[in-house]
Structures are given as C-alpha cells and as structure tokens.
Design brief:
Layout (H helix, E strand, L loop, with lengths): L15 E5 L2 E4 L4 E4 L2 H4 L8 H11 L13 H12 L7 E5 L2 H16 L3 E5 L8 H5 L18 E4 L4 H4 L3 H18 L6 E6 L2 E2 L5 E2 L2 H14 L2 E5 L23 E4 L10 E5 L1 H4 L15 H16 L2 H21 L4 E7 L2 E6 L8 H13 L2 E2 L1 E3 L5 E4 L7 H15 L3
C-alpha cells in the first residue's frame, strides 16, 4: 500500500480479504469481529445475500444512468421508499454520493429558499470535509487546519455536552440556549440566519446525544424566526440509534434531513430530503452531479431497506444496543480508566481517561490496538482522541455482543 497517500492514517493494520456478516477476514485468514461497520456504513452486515443479489442483478441491466440525462427505476423507486420512511412533509429527494455532498446541497437549499446568508452549527459537530461542510465542522481541528479562511456566514454555537461542562444536562441546555440567544443579539441577526444544522448524536465529536430539551428549544427558535432546522442524519439515520431516524429521540421534525452511511450497505450514496415546496424555492440548476443516484447504489439501498424491514433491524438495534450499553457500564464500574459511557442504540462510546480523570489519547490508542489483538475492530473519535466507539452492523445478536464485550474487557486490562 506504499502508493497510497501518507496522510491516510490507518486505524488498524488489517488488510481485508473479505467480509462475512459481522466479520472481516484478513489476507492471512484471521477473522475479526467488526464493530466499526465501515464507520456505520455496512448496516446489514458485510455482503448480505439480499444486497449482493440486488447489486448483481442491477449490474447486468444498467450500471450508470446519469440522472439528469435519463431516469431509471431504482432511482424512482428509492425516492419513493425514502420519502415513505421519512416524516410526511419530507417528500422530495436529491441524491448525491457522500454525506459531505448532501450537506453542501442542504446549505445551498437553505440559502436559496430563505434568501438569508448565515448558518448556525454547533460545537463538536462533524458535517464533512469539503469547503462548506468543513466550515460547519468543529469535531476536531484537523478538519479545518490549513484551510482558513473557510466559507463565510457560519456561526458556531455551544453544544450542551453536560459532562464536559461539569453540569447537569438541564443546566447545560439552559446555558447553551441562552448563549444562542446571545449570538442572535451580537453575531447573527435571526433575519439573516437561514438555518441551524445539528446531529441528533454528535458523531466524530464523541458520540454525545443531543438532549431533547435542547432540540425543542432550537426548533422553537427556528419557527419563531423563520429559520430552517437541518438534521444531519448521516451517521444516526436508517436505524442506527434504535429508531429509524435519530431525530425521533428528540421530539422534533426537521425541515431538511441529510442521509448517507447506512443507507446502501457500503455502496456510495447520500440524500437530502426536504418538502417539495421548499425544494422548488431553490434556483434552477443548483442541484446535479455525475454519479448521484447511481443505479447500483440505488439498487443496494432498496435491498438494504428491504432487509431492515424484513429482519426488524431497527428494533434489533434498540434491544442489542441496550444490552451493550449495560455491558459497557459494568466494565466501566470496575475500571477507573473509563470516564463515561454514552450513546443511543448501536451508536455507543466509552471515554478513556488517565488516573486524574483527564482525556488520555495515548491509552485510547493502546486500547484500540489491544482490541485488534483480541480480534475486535473498533474506532476512536472525540476532540481529544480519547473516545472509543462501538458501531456494529444492525444485524448483531446477543452472542456477538457478549463476545465483543469480553474481547474489549481483555483489551481494557492491558492499559
């Protein structure tokens, strides 16, 4: 792999030969329990037979039909299916390839539809690496470093990460809503603020669930001032949190929703979903792309939605996530190096700290490497690199949860 860019930092030294459900098999035949799911992408597991069959069948019919040149059935069917599983008012779909592209499309739509320039993002959010998306991203400085100045018109507001502040959740929510109101008075007038964008659970920022009371406060302000509420469901959507959409935990519905990752079981596909009347307010020619809505990716997404429905994977994520959360809390209770356990559904994390309770990135890397040695693949995240995340495919069962926790427990003993 010496010809790959040296800036691609590998989380593990594993070279995959094939994937089988919950497992990655390397070139030497060693099997690894995969609790990364390709960063939450392989929602139906590796190479689910129904998804593989759908891709094979579609490849024999049409691989690419550029969707502003010709339409194709997988594209039309997927737009219908995605609208059907979205909130009723979200009935118009734009397809792209990556989460970042869908975020860029949402920014453009929000500015066009409202005629306002500014966007509010929240501290710790990750929305992508392209220029507009990177301007919204504050999960880690590496995403922004060396790119300044980034896209203008972005205002970053505090996120109620209660444990970081050392407050109760109620105190953190009250403070952050007050600070948002202060931003309206000092930085961005609501009359020139197009939208707020937030993840239902901070992803790269450390797997911190957005408090429902905070989301309700944001939605109220959006309605009061005519701003749009954008839910970035790239990592939380399609069953990951034990609900089909992460925002279902919050008691609010977005005006624009961004979807990617788990939608197509590993094929590159993203979407922005919004009300048709909102889409119609954007400028002609503002949406397009060569590969968006690719026929193979759409076929894979249709098969993915079939599997999620037929195998009750949303409910399974809730049940298995609850079991894993309990297991992680048991491990945390017996080890002072775990400073906290959090998450929703099968989007869980532990925070690794030193003996003084400070973030310990070095020990986190050791823990991740130790897990690989135990045959368990995990990823890290968080501003300080001290959060280990657990994102197994949604097909995971109790036996694999127990196995994964045992492997993680052995790795934990090594730090």
């Amino acid at each position: 792999m010496s010809n790959l860019s040296p800036l691609l930092q590998q989380a593990t030294g594993v070279t995959a030969e094939r994937g089988e459900g919950l497992y990655i098999v390397d070139v030497e035949g060693r099997r690894y329990l995969d609790f990364t799911a390709g960063i939450g992408v392989t929602s139906t597991g590796h190479c689910h037979p129904h998804v593989v069959d759908a891709i094979r069948e579609q490849a024999g019919k049409l691989i690419h039909g550029q969707y502003t040149t010709v339409l194709h059935r997988p594209l039309e069917l997927l737009a219908e299916r995605l609208s059907a599983v979205s909130p009723d008012h979200l009935n118009s779909v734009f397809f792209a390839n990556s989460g970042s592209e869908a975020v860029e499309a949402a920014l453009r739509l929000a500015r066009h539809a409202t005629g306002r320039p500014n966007i509010i993002a929240f501290h710790g959010g990750f929305h992508g690496r392209t220029m507009g998306a990177a301007a919204l991203t504050t999960s880690k400085v590496a995403i922004r470093a060396g790119l300044q100045p980034l896209m203008g018109g972005v205002v970053v507001a505090p996120f109620p990460h209660a444990s970081r502040y050392g407050w109760s959740e109620e105190e953190a929510v009250r403070f952050c809503l007050d600070e948002l109101d202060y931003l309206f008075a000092t930085v961005t007038d609501p009359r020139e603020t197009a939208a707020l964008i937030i993840e239902p659970v901070l992803g790269e920022g450390g797997y911190v669930p957005t408090p429902a009371a905070f989301a309700v406060g944001l939605k109220e302000r959006c309605e009061r001032f005519g701003m749009l509420f954008i839910a970035d469901e790239v990592q939380t959507g399609v069953g990951r949190t034990g609900r089909f959409w992460g925002h279902e935990h919050l008691g609010v519905e977005p005006d624009i929703m961004i979807v990617a990752k788990g939608l197509a079981s590993g094929m590159p596909l993203s979407a922005m979903v919004a009300p048709k009347e909102l889409m119609e307010r954007a400028w002609t020619g503002s949406q397009g792309g060569t590969y968006g809505g690719n026929a193979l990716s759409c076929a894979a997404a249709l098969a993915t939605l079939d599997v999620i429905e037929q195998e009750s994977l949303v409910a399974n994520a809730d049940v298995q996530g609850t079991e894993m959360l309990k297991g992680l809390r048991v491990l945390a209770a017996g080890n002072p190096r775990i400073g906290g356990v959090r998450g929703l559904g099968l989007m869980l994390a532990v925070e690794v700290v030193d003996t003084d309770g400070n973030p310990d990135a070095k020990a986190t890397k050791q823990l991740q490497a130790g897990a690989v040695g135990e045959g368990l693949l995990l990823l890290t995240c968080g501003a300080y690199g001290n959060v280990v995340r657990f994102i197994p495919p949604l097909i995971v069962q109790s036996a694999e949860i127990k196995d994964g926790l045992e492997r993680f427990g052995r790795a934990l003993q090594q730090i």
